[in-house]
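Hi all, long-time lurker, first post. I run a small reading group and we've been trying to get comfortable going from sequence to structure in the token notation. Rather than ask abstract questions, I figured I'd post a concrete chain and ask someone more experienced to write out its structure so we can walk through it together at our next meeting. Sequence below, copied exactly:
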Amino acid sequence: MPFPIIDVRATGQNIDRLIKERQISVHTLQTYFGFDTPRAIYKWLRGEHLPSVDHLFALSKLLRVPMQDILIEQMQDDQDVPPIFKGSLREFLMIYMLNQRGNLPMRLTTPSLMEGVILRWKPFGLTENPPLGG
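-- Answer (accepted) --
Happy to help. Here is the structure in token form:
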């Protein structure tokens, strides 16, 4: 089964298209996001980086489109994806959230490291245990 990933370059082109359709300038985006410089926005438009989840959410509200209409999906072979990323989106977001809080090491590649996720799973209101990698 193919594993979905975000095509960063195509997503940047899509953001560029969406802001041009709505006649929104880069300067307007810079002000909206409170950036000192437009550098991050230009990196999004060139497909060098993706907006953070918070910026993507805010951008979707400004553009009045769902977040998934901003992101462009690229498929890749499932075999190239580490087992830790083969779980559900909810599992990935849980790992990401825990990493942001400094509760887990950034490299979660083995089931033993995943045990920390299970221990912290229920306090966040999730009742099922996440699958343990591959």
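A couple of things your group might point at:
The beta strands are 3-6, 73-76.
The chain has a mean pLDDT of 74.
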